[in-house]
Write a structure and sequence with these properties.
Number of domains: 2
Low-confidence stretches: none
Strand content: 25-35%
CATH topology of the largest domain: Ribosomal Protein S5, domain 2
Largest sheet: 6 strands, mixed
Mean pLDDT: 93
CATH class of the largest domain: Alpha Beta
Bound molecules: adenosine-5'-triphosphate
Radius of gyration: 19 Å
Oligomer: single chain
Number of strands: 9
Length: 282
């Protein structure tokens, strides 16, 4: 009997991203508070009779071959359990591509976890998360999902209960801008700011308390210095979302997406509609 599995792969935002020194392996040491969203791609896994890993996606901009992170994810699981490849992976894309929302990473994470289930194999979550680091630094986080403080290159994670009720989040992505994470890190020049540790340590407790007023003055994303300089439209979006001062507004990851965190639905809807009305190009 042909087996089919349907999975949700959530996007993530960085509520804070502190980029520290570059390590000898080329990665930067980071500290980040990360949260997954309800915004997600839908992944369908299906057994098939034709040999190979067959990737389908409703978005023509997404690669369908070995460059797709789900291909790497499938290979890792097939090798780990010595299973011959004959699988269809269908991606329904809702997460904007190359936007700093971990779209590719989350698809890969869902495929790895889903394949273990579909082939009825046993692999503890910790082991699966460790294996997933081979794909990228964000993959273990999105595989588990929720709220976490990340360190190392993003793979050392301490998970926490997200605040309740949850925030309302607006995501805005400028048209025709896509940012390579590699480019952003390569162009990052660390400046002196001795207050970063102090700020970072205050963010998690304020986030847990849903203390929007304090968060507004605490959050930072070091990669804004790179992306905002190259793409001023990202700054415009930030300003539009910030206009009535109700939310916490920041670029996510290497951008160019910007998120606004709001305590209530009406503030979020108001901010989102401002983006649509204004000349801001989203
Ligand atoms: P991150 O936040 O993890 O740095 P991102 O959200 O900025 O990632 P992605 O959406 O993962 O970026 O896309 C980065 C590039 O990866 C794209 O340009 C695309 O060519 C490639 N890619 C590979 N697999 C996928 C996938 N499943 N979905 C989207 N892009 C993919």
């Amino acid at each position: 009997m042909k087996k089919t599995l349907i999975l949700q792969a959530p996007a993530k935002i960085n509520i804070c991203l502190w980029v520290k020194e570059k390590r000898s392996d080329g990665y930067h040491e980071i500290a980040s508070l990360m949260q997954t969203l309800t915004l997600s791609d839908t992944i369908t896994l299906q057994d098939c009779r034709t040999e190979g890993i067959h990737i389908e996606c409703d978005d023509p901009a997404v690669p369908k071959g070995a460059e797709n992170l789900v291909h790497k994810a499938a290979c890792l699981i097939l090798e780990r359990f010595n299973i011959p490849p004959s699988i269809i992976i269908r991606i329904e894309k809702r997460i904007p591509i190359a936007a700093g929302l971990a779209g590719g990473s989350t698809d890969a994470a869902a495929v790895m976890a889903g394949m273990v289930r579909m082939y009825e194999k046993m692999l503890p979550m910790v082991e699966l998360m460790t294996l997933s680091q081979k794909i990228g630094s964000d993959v273990p986080f999105v595989m588990h999902g929720g709220l976490a403080i990340a360190s190392g290159r993003g793979e050392n994670l301490s998970f926490h209960e997200p605040p309740k009720p949850s925030f309302f989040v607006v995501i805005a992505v400028p048209k025709k801008v896509s940012v390579s994470t590699k480019w952003a890190y390569e162009n990052y020049a660390p400046g002196e700011n001795s207050r970063k540790e102090e700020l970072f340590n205050k963010i998690f407790p304020c986030y847990k308390k849903r203390d929007i007023e304090s968060l507004k003055n605490l959050v930072f994303n070091d990669l804004e210095s790179v992306t905002l300089q190259r793409y001023p439209e990202v700054q415009e979006i930030k300003e539009t979302l910030l206009e009535d001062g109700n939310g916490v507004v920041l670029m996510s990851g290497s951008g160019p997406s910007v998120f606004g965190l709001f305590e209530d639905r009406s503030s979020a809807v108001k901010a989102a509609s401002r983006l649509n009305q204004e000349k801001v190009n989203v």
